[in-house]
Amino acid sequence: MKMFNFANFGIGKEKEYFIEQLSMLLGAGMPVALALPAIEKEIKSIRLKKIIAGIEAEIDSGSTISASLEKAGIFPESTISLIRIGEQSGRLSENLKVVAIQEQKEREFRSKITSAMMYPGFVFTLTITVGLGIAWFILPRLASVFASLHAKLPLITVWLIAFGSFLGKYGIYVIPGFIFISLLLLFFVFIFKKTNFLGQAILFYIPAIAGLLKEVELARFGSLLGNLLQAGLPVLDSLQSLSESSALYRYKKLYLHLYERVKEGNSFQKSFELFKNTKSLIPSPVQQLVITAEQSGNLADTLIKIGEMYETKTQDSAKNISVLLEPILLVIVWLGVVAVAIAVILPLYSLLGSLNSSGSSPAPIINRVEESASPSASPLEKSATSSATLKLKIQETGIGYLNVRENPSLTASIIGRVNPGETYEYKDKRDNWYEITLEATFSGWVNGEYIEEIKP
Questions:
Q1: Over the stretch 158-169, which tens digit does the pLDDT of each residue have?
Q2: Within the chain, which residue ranges are assigned CATH 2.30.30.40?
């Protein structure tokens, strides 16, 4: 069981320094018991100091360097195998140098992938943040404005209003819940060891990302396997260490297949042929190089050259990946902006069209009915008129006016407008619509939702 489960977090560069210094001191003839305390004094990380102290204690109790490092849990199995082979063959210092180089390459590979994903990740996060802000703070207000129009709206606007109204009521619960679920989903899909193969499968369907992942893994395949073989580790042990150190599920499966087939006595050529879709993971030219090198007995050097070749390709791909992904991200952002713009602009065009059509013929001037009767009328006539006249008062509508329509329907033509606070006579009421008296014998209908009847 490993002593430090989380000890290797955040100690990448100092871990490389530890291995480099240990290799130099052992190569100079210094005993391990003196080399470790000397290195520990130069280490700044408190966590790594504790790990080195634990390694010292294990060595003092009689353990080997490889066993102590394995128990510490800061190096993968391939590294431990290299150190163990170095102890057994007397080439510990040389193998530690190989380990230091390999650790540096692993860190560079991770750094390249992180750098390549930083810009797309930033743009995507910013897009989601802005989208949530618009949905939470702006859509509910747009929903209330469009709802007050009482006009027939496009389907996309209806969906927008419904979504905005929903967020206006429940956004305080929905938005934090959405963020929490998204982070949890990202953790299980891309980070959690037992389920991250799902995230890897998604990444392999994104052309630019898939190409970078393949180049990084081929560089690791050539460099790590070549160094393990060159250090004297048997092919089977090297393949097993390679499979254990690989983080990509597809390649881990391939390496285990190669291990099983070579264990049965097959060559690399036969092993490649027996695996389905080998070409999608290892290109045919690389397979041919490995096959030829195996037949000529120059496998280790050829693999190292393959690793160097794909390291160069990885550098170029990491620089270009943001350029390749930028158009895709721009299209995603553009689609979101266009959808919101269409949902907002279409109802406004519809409203302007209705106003223009109603303005083609002069709208009647709507006279406000005065609260008092004609001054020339007698008191008796005033009383009779007040008791016989039905009146209503226009209420606030949210847009500053109320449309007067030709018939009691929202789809009827607009023939005029009335303003909030004004009072009018009405002579008919039908399905919550009121027919108000306009100038002379002209009349029109107003929606009962925005009127208040005045009691006689």
A1: 787 777 778 778
A2: 379-454
Q: What is the DSSP string of 89-143?
A: HT-HHHHHHHHHHHHHHHHHHHHHHHHHHHHHHHHHHHHHHHHHHIIIIIHHHHH
Two structure tokens written together for 80: 């431990």
CATH 3.40.1190.20 is right for the domain spanning 103-360: no
**Which residue's structure tokens are 């066993």?**
67
pLDDT tens digits, one per residue of 146-161: 666 665 677 777 787 7
**C-alpha 352, offset from chain centre:** 39
Q: Per-residue DSSP letters for 76-101?
A: -HHHHHHHHHHHHHT-HHHHHHHHHH
Buried-state track 388-420, b at ≥16 Cβ within 10 A, e below 16:
eebbbebeebeeeebbbbeebeeeeebbbbbee
The least confident of 104-118, 303-317, 325-339 is: 104-118
**Whose CA is closest to 82, among 200, 223, 217, 192?**
223
pLDDT of 301 reads 93
How far apart are alpha carbons 357 and 341 in whole angstroms?
A: 24
**Is residue 335 within a helix (H) or strand (E), and if so which, with residue range?**
helix 299-358
Chain mean pLDDT for the chain:
79
pLDDT at 364: 45
Q: Please name which of 254, 232, 233 lies closest in space to residue 243, comparing C-alpha atoms.
A: 254
Please state the pTM of the whole predicted model: 0.60
DSSP H/E element including 47: helix 46-60
Neighbour tally for 183: CB within 10 Å? 10
Distance (Å, whole) CA 215 – CA 219: 6
Class of domain 379-454 (CATH, top level):
mainly beta
Q: Is there a contact between 202 and 55 (Cβ–Cβ < 8 Å)?
A: no
The amino acid sitting at 166 is F
- Contact partners, residue 396, CB within 8 Å, separation at least 6: 420, 450
Q: State whether residue 433 is helix, strand or coil.
A: strand
Q: What are the start and end residues of each CATH 1.20.81.30 domain in the chain? A: 103-360
Q: Please give the Cα distance from 428 to 446 (Å, whole number).
A: 11
**Cβ distance 254 to 281 under 8 Å?**
yes
The structure tokens listed for 39 are 């290195």
Write down the H helix ranges in 150-267: 155-186, 196-203, 207-230, 235-245, 249-263
**Measured CA distances, 170 to 146, 176, 313, 393 (Å):** 20, 11, 50, 35
